[in-house]
Design brief:
Helix content: 25-40%
Number of helices: 17
Number of domains: 4
């Protein structure tokens, strides 16, 4: 059968025609049905429309519209927000609203919180930027806002509610995340970073202060501490003033962890900045308190020894070097006796000290140092030769070099390279001269590639080293906070808004790390950022017919995108699961 077009009286008609052979075997045609007029709005269009409805197609045109007649008015990113929404609900984070259930705020605080958290992962921006971003995305049904998007003041007021109930939120968050945490053996990693801020004004209780930035130099900032499990899941954070000493944050954070989490054993792994003899003493006192109260929690730690203290172990390290092949990797241990020093209290203590040597790192560091020194020594010899030539009466173009000028230039070059302890410029001599401390150079090369860890665990030395090296994972968490989530620089002025901003970014980091864990478990190579980028290509499309009807649907979800949803265990979006643009967001048309 086929469609045959005929004309009559200036009109075109469609007929359903069948080919057949008569009794004589000759080919013939016969008309089975006249389908009607072909002009727009005619019988054929109505028939097509009726057949579409019979197939369950919702977007019918009443038989009056062709594709060229549609006005395509709007396209909103849908896939990435949908995935985050489904993950948010899978982690039961909707339950955070119980933390402020008694608040008298008429705001949809939870919807504002969700919007700010999702924005950090999809298109991080200021709070005004969140409003612009909301105009470009299709929100899932049930997201909130009741048909009208929030204003800037609503987001700020929601942040105030969040900070007012921060303790309850963190307690609720700990409760919701317990199924993801190993309660019997919790190895936790603790570290701090610095977040730059804008603005010079000073307010009451300001957490912004001048301090040494992790990015180098001195900046106005606040300090953010982060606790993460061995699986890479962040479980706690805290905002500290910008000039806070790292070591002073350790004990308060541990006490907060023990209050919120029913842990049986804590193995704390932290970097060099967290080690002080006072901290070791206080950790022992805290363990005694836990034992006395019958809490039954074993508090263990693996802390890196600051390089500045390596000199205390000069003889011991020299003896260990002599007993091992420097060309091979080795791990050994010794005892570190402390007590009677100004930075510790209480009786003398002995600590287990694990020493690890990496010959590759040692060679790389020694070679880099010697290369720097060769360049500086060559520079000094060049200036010395120039001074000798001037003394001998040889004239050169340009301004003559003086001994004081040569001393100043080499001194600053050595200081900028952090090698003043090895290349010493004699600033008190009338003549330009410098010396190289070869003995100290050999001592430092003996320390290259060495890692010193103090611990109270009974784990084998190799396991202690491995646990510390796993600390690099928390640094990836900080990189995600700074690069993908863009926690800073922060433009908020009030301390409560800064703390609320940090909490929003912390929640975004939880979603980021859970996505990362699920991708890794599915043996996928994509990062969370790449995942969201791929899903962001799924759009909600909006079109309008000439008679004013709205047509909405999703762009086709490809096989690769379906695989990504399956990899992280989340359902694919559906047109019915998305809110249509409401009256407040309706495209002009």
């Amino acid at each position: 059968m086929f469609i045959k077009v005929t004309s009559s009286g200036g009109r075109r008609y469609a007929q359903l025609v069948e080919s057949y052979r008569n009794d004589a075997g000759q080919p013939r045609q016969r008309t089975l049905a006249t389908l009607g007029r072909l002009e727009p709005g005619g019988d054929v269009d109505r028939l097509i429309d009726a057949l579409g409805r019979a197939q369950g197609r919702e977007n019918t045109t009443g038989g009056s519209t062709r594709i060229t007649d549609l006005r395509f008015l709007d396209a909103r990113a849908a896939g990435d927000v949908w995935a985050l929404w489904q993950l948010w609900r899978a982690l039961d984070l909707e339950g955070l609203s119980l933390a402020w259930r008694r608040s008298r705020s008429e705001l949809d605080v939870l919807a504002c919180l969700r919007a700010m958290v999702f924005n950090r992962l999809c298109d991080p921006a200021s709070k005004l930027g969140v409003l612009r971003w909301l105009q470009t995305v299709a929100l899932p049904r049930g997201f909130g806002f009741d048909g009208s998007l929030p204003e800037h003041q609503h987001l700020l007021r929601a942040m105030d509610v969040i900070d007012d109930h921060a303790d309850a939120i963190n307690e609720r968050l700990a409760l919701l995340m317990r199924p993801l945490i190993d309660q019997e053996l919790s190895v936790v990693f603790y570290d701090l970073t610095t977040i730059k801020v804008h603005g010079e004004a000073v307010v009451d209780g300001d957490v912004r202060d001048l301090g040494k930035s992790k990015d180098g130099g001195v900046a106005r900032q606040f300090v953010l501490s982060l606790v993460q499990t061995a699986e890479g899941l962040p479980i706690a954070h805290e905002v500290h003033p910008g000039n806070t000493s790292e070591a002073k944050t350790l004990l308060p954070m541990i006490r907060a962890l023990l209050e919120r989490w029913p842990l049986k054993r804590v193995v704390l792994v932290a970097d060099r900045g967290l080690l002080s003899l006072n901290n070791l003493q206080e950790l022992a006192q805290l363990q005694a308190e836990l034992d006395a109260t019958g809490r039954g929690v074993r508090l263990e730690y693996v802390l890196a020894v600051p390089a500045a203290r390596y000199g205390e172990f000069r003889d011991e390290l020299k003896a260990l070097d002599a007993s091992h092949d420097a060309a091979l990797t080795w791990i050994d241990e010794l005892l570190w006796a402390t007590g009677g020093e100004k930075d510790t209290a209480g009786p003398p203590m002995q600590h287990r000290l694990v020493v690890a040597h990496d010959p590759v790192v040692a060679q790389r560091r020694s070679q880099a140092r010697r290369e720097q020194m060769r360049e500086l020594i060559a520079l000094g010899e060049q200036w010395g030769g120039r001074l000798d030539a001037q003394e001998a009466g040889q004239r050169r173009r340009g301004r003559p070099l003086s001994d004081s000028g040569a001393k100043a230039r080499l001194y600053h070059a050595v200081k900028d390279a952090n090698l003043a302890h090895l290349i010493q410029v004699d600033l008190h001599s009338e003549l330009f001269q410098f010396t190289v401390d070869e003995q100290r150079l050999q001592y430092l090369e003996g320390l290259d590639g060495k890692l010193l860890l103090v611990t109270n665990t009974d784990a084998p030395a190799a396991e202690v080293v491995q646990r510390y090296k796993s600390l690099a994972d928390i640094e990836r968490g900080f990189r995600a906070l700074k690069s993908e989530i863009e926690i800073g620089p922060v433009h908020h002025r009030l301390p409560r808004r800064i703390r609320a901003h940090a909490l929003v970014c912390f929640l975004a980091l939880i979603l980021h790390r859970v996505l990362r864990m699920r991708l890794k478990a599915s043996d996928r190579q994509e990062s969370p950022a790449r995942l969201l980028e791929q899903l962001r290509r799924i759009h909600q499309q909006t079109a309008q017919t000439p008679d004013g009807q709205w047509l909405r649907g999703l762009t086709e979800i490809g096989a690769a995108q379906r695989e990504l949803f399956a990899a992280v265990g989340l359902p694919v979006p559906t047109p019915a699961g998305l809110m249509p643009p409401d009256a407040g967001r309706q495209p002009d048309g």
